[in-house]
Amino acid sequence: MKTLNDYSKIFRRYDLETEKAGAAKTVSTDPVLQKIAQFVVNGDEEGILPAVQEALKTKSPLDVINGALIAGMNEVSRLWDEGVYFLPQVILSSDAMNVGIAECEKAMGKAMSRKAKVVTHTAEGDIHDIGQVIVNALLNANGFEVINLGADVPVDKVVSAVKEHRPVMVTGTALMTTTMTAFPKIAHQLKLAGIEIPFVCGGGAVSEEYVTSFELGIWGKEASQAPGMAEDALSGDNWQTMRGKWNG
Amino acid sequence: MNAKQRVMSVINHEKPDRMPCFGANSTVTYEQMEKVQAFWPEGHEKAEAMAKQAMAAYTVLGFDAVRVPFCQTFEAEALGCKIKPGGTEGIPGIAHPPPYKLDDTPTFPDDFLSRGRIPELLKAVRILKKELGDEVAIVGGIIGPFTIAGSLVDTVPLLKATFKAPDKIRPFLEVGMKAGAALGKALVDAGADIISCEDMTASPDLIAPKTYREFEMEYQRRQFEGICVPRILHICGNVDAIVEYMGKTGAEILSLEPKANVQLAREKCGPRIIMMGGVDTATTLFMKDAETVRMGCEESIAKGIQILAPGCAVAPGTPLENLFAMVEVAKSH
Fold first, then answer.
1. Which of B130, B176, B260, B276 could pair with B148 as two cysteines, CB 3.0-4.6 Å apart?
2. What is the pLDDT of residue B283?
3. Distance between CA atoms of B234 and B314, rounded to whole angstroms?
4. What is the tens place of the pLDDT at every residue in B60-110?
5. Interface of B with A in 227-246 (CB under 8 A)
6. What letters, b where the CB count within 10 A reaches 16 and e where it falls short, cover B76-86?
């Protein structure tokens, strides 16, 4: 009698069409780099360290960063955009990437050179720094230095961080309607200080109409727009130009 | 038909005189506080102020139910979280650091119901029952297991654990389940007619639908199990990917944001579940005018909403006219 050992194809549920299947693509033909990229895709912050250390024996830190760590994170970003990956996976991948980048920077003896700084924060009173986590990961993966102020950040702290770090752009995230009222206050104080930089605001409760109602404000619809916006800010676009491009 | 009869008739699948309108979440605004002369932070801390503010939903807005509390921190505080006060304008939040790490074993205290501000919350319900109990439905709010777990260990570590070490989240879900269940039962004993569970962190915006299906659904079902009054389940955001499982938790009513697909929810959950929702609290109710609110409500009703409600917690700065507009629409259906 023929016995069946694998039930996976029999008991598979076909009614879960809301959950999409998809797999990461190969990002490098070099098996060493591909292995590291796979650790990023899998969000394995323990496994990635020995793999990066091994790779650094034969490869330059920059090759590992660009060819494996950032390439892997871009793949994660694609899976997120397509609805295959969910937030916990993006957080894990971002952490794994950062472990790898820190090791490469150690090998270089200096911090990886970055395009420019971006200050990110989640509004005061808002404990959900969730959207910001993705923004940070994507900016990082695209070569920006993220000054991460975290969640529940008072207005003054955002303004003083901008004064101190002189970023090309500042972002604010709010999931709650009760907290997004901090954004115009931040914009106002930056204006008063003579700092006219793009202030990208987004998150669950934040609407385009609201953000474009105050100066400096640019509405961020999706976290995935952040790197493109930062590139624009870096190339010298002012907030008015950026608002025209990214908003209504 | 009075407000309470209207709400109960919909829940019993009978035909009400018109559509009821009330919030599954907080509906308190600054203007209502002025009208009833009860303010924050007292409304989060003291039974009398809390009851006064809740009553405004009925006496000022004309909603068909009143609801306490107005924040999401009662269970968490009683379980050992530090509270960050919200002052006169905001709601209390959870302060850092959280009381537990993922490797810890959380405990459910025997004296849970006498901890933190829970006694004041229960007292507020007793006041509401005494003052308005015959005319208007009283909604008692609890928090879902996953969201409480997020308060106990912090959200980001919890989210990471859903993929990395999912078994470690079970003890926290267990405590969250017990906390909401105990509070729910106590609210019913104090006079609540309906229990509304907010489970913000269980949204597919934050966790994978797989995590909801394999973990949270069962804990939510157990949390609701011992509660003998109608139960509302509210999860923020677009819940299309989990709405089928929300319908299996025992909730009679699902509170949906306009981002969620009501027709899909109906298909997935069948005729037994009552759909509650209306307009987006941030982009419409807070930001737009009464006419836009009316249009949004009509649109939601056309899609199958049976209880008109703000999609989520009302922003305290929301203008009164916009909330009145909701009641107007409800009266015409």
1. B176
2. 83
3. 14
4. 999 999 999 999 999 999 999 999 998 998 899 898 899 999 999 999 999
5. 236-237, 240-242
6. bbbbbbebbeb
Q: Which residue of A has its CA nearest to B287?
A: A210
Chain A hits for B90, Cβ within 8 Å: 125, 178-179
> Amino acid identity, residue B22?
F
Q: Side chain identity at B267, as an amino acid letter? A: E
Residue A181, chain B, CB below 8 Å: the answer is yes
User: pLDDT for B200-258, tens place per residue?
Assistant: 999 998 899 999 999 999 999 999 999 999 999 999 989 999 999 999 999 999 999 99
Contact B159 A207 (CB under 8 A): no
Residue A145 has pLDDT above 90, yes or no: yes
ipTM of model: 0.90
Would you identify the CATH topology of the domain A117-246? Rossmann fold (3.40.50)
CB pair distance less than 8 Å for A127 and B160: no
Q: Is A26 on the interface with B (CB under 8 A)?
A: no
Q: Tell me which fold the domain A31-108 belongs to.
A: 1.10.1240
- Between chain A and chain B, the number of residue pairs with CB atoms below 8 A apart is 84
How does DSSP classify residue A122?
E
* pTM of the predicted model as reported, rounded to 2 decimal places: 0.89
Identify whether the C-beta of residue A33 lies closer than 8 Å to the C-beta of residue A93. no
What domains lie within chain B, and their CATH numbers? 3-331 (3.20.20.210)
Beta carbons of B160 and A88 less than 8 Å apart: yes
Q: Which H helix or E strand runs over B275?
A: strand B274-279
In chain A, where the domains are located: 31-108, 117-246
pLDDT in tens, A186-227: 999 999 999 999 999 998 778 898 899 999 999 999 888 999
CB contact under 8 A, A92 and B160: yes
Residues of B within 8 A of A43 (CB-CB) are 163-164
Both tokens assigned to A129: 């720094």
Picking from A77, A25, A75, the residue whose alpha carbon sits closest to that of residue A226 is A77
The B residues from 278 to 317 touching A (CB cutoff 8 Å) are 281-283, 286-288, 313, 315-317
Give the contacts of A134 (CB within 8 A, at least 6 positions apart). Answer: A80, A87, A90, A94, A223, A224
CB-based contacts of A174, cutoff 8 Å, min separation 6: A122, A123, A126, A180, A182, A183, A201, A203, A204, A205, A206
Residue B84 touches chain A, beta carbons under 8 Å: yes
> Cβ contacts of residue B140 below 8 Å, gap of 6+?
B67, B68, B125, B183, B184, B187, B188, B190, B192, B194, B195, B196
- Smallest CA–CA distance, residue A154 to chain B, in Å, is 13
A228 closest CA partner among A191, A200, A207: A200
CA neighbor of A148 nearest in space, from A204, A226, A220: A226
* Residues in chain A closer than 8 A to B269 (CB atoms): none
| Whether the bond into B41 is cis, omega within 30 of 0 | yes
